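Let us practice reading a record.
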Amino acid sequence: MANTYSSLVVQTVFAVKYHSSMLDKAWRQELFGVIGNLINETDCKTYIVNGVSDYVHCLFGFKPVHCLSDVMQSVKSKSSKWLNETSYLQTRFEWQNGFSAFSYSHGQVEKVYRYIKNQEAHHQSQTFINEYRYMLQKYKVEYDQNYLFHPPLEDIQV
């Protein structure tokens, strides 16, 4: 074959470090726009970026010439840099290490898009942590409960 053709759709999920509710509703959509643009800068195609005060879902078309970890490292580091350079927060911002990724067929994009779009309403009845564990189990992702999240700051012994 003379070219590479693909249809790879990926959903990534990542959280604010210590699960702090730092993503304020007043500027959250601006941050999600920045994240979408950063995904596009990697030559991937953003479908939607959305979330709530402590985590983000991204749905995008992924190019097989890239390493997903490299794409996410770039997106997370550049978006945290952007946020730290704004006047939105009085403290330093960090994403939690790591992310989760789930793949979908092109026929599932619309359903996943709607799910991500409605995160705020969805999480009025279910916590992110419970939903996250459900997703990992549903997609048969092996994980160690001890390493899912950094503990909230109030749980850290000083």
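A brief commentary: The longest helix spans residues 68-85.
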